[in-house]
Amino acid sequence: MLSSYSVQGQSDSSRNDSIEEKRPNYVRLRAIFAGQSALYLGSIYGLSRSWYKNPLTNFRVKDDTYEWLQMDKMGHVYTSYQIARHTAALYRTTGISKKQMLVYGAISGIIFQTPIEILDGFSPEYGFSPGDMVANVTGSMIYLSQIALWDEVRIQPKFSFHYTPLAQVRPELLGRNHAERWLKDYNGQTYWFSGSPGTFMKNSRWPQWLCFSVGYGIDNMVSAEKNKSIAMGYMPVRQYYLSLDVDLTKIKTRNKFVKTLGFLFNSLKIPAPALQFSKTGVEFRPLYF
User: Fold this and answer.
1) 60 and 161 share a domain?
2) Which helix (DSSP H) or strand (DSSP E) does residue 244 occupy?
3) Across residues 82-87, what is the average pLDDT?
4) How many domains does the chain have?
5) Which residues are CB-neighbours of 142 under 8 A, at least 6 positions away?
6) Do 144 and 173 share a structural domain?
7) Are 143 and 252 in contact (CB under 8 A)?
8) 49 or 71: whose pLDDT is higher?
9) pTM confidence score
10) Which pick of 28, 64, 98, 185 has the fewest CB atoms within 10 Å?
């Protein structure tokens, strides 16, 4: 009886230890919640003080889906996706369940963008954009659906940028300095979707880190509206790209620091040769970013 009791006691103790190991790190979880809240409130305050030049007025809705040839909507999709991806990875370190991690990440991608849309609704220059909200939800869902379906991200939304001379034409709209231009000059932005055939085919010899990348960009937009750009003497065009890319998260390494760098920089498309397609024809870019 004594021997049986001892074994049973040891088993219960091991089970309790296992339960303790699986419990989430609530201290870290609360710290992340607090940090997110502070960043969230600080962002709202900073935007309300610096981005909006005129005093906020009555709330109004504006359909702006025709502006910038939808490049700004691509930016909303990309930003929401990246917020969801980074937030989910942060919550993963707390030991919460996969379902909770996905939900918190997806919600964060939407919540962090929503205050901007609300402030736009009260701004006389902008107005609340239903199109922006749809793009915000889409970005988070791109992350959530891939993890739910494949338990990994196989199609990576990415970003690249190059400076264009068009910003000098209308610096008040496209940016007065380098920092403003990469945010405001949509002519220099390209949004990509990168994926490796090796992640979709079992027992494939194709390296999972080597990706094909499809991109979208615009040119000659010196106004938010196409007709106004044409009236100023510019012919706006949509541009599509096909290029190679590297999924830095698929490069095998045991170094945690290198893994972290790979995760962070995987939001950017690497410079590489690209084919550019537009209504003016096909052009080869030896090195495009």
Assistant:
1) no
2) strand 237-246
3) 91
4) 2
5) 77, 81, 155, 157
6) no
7) no
8) 71
9) 0.85
10) 98
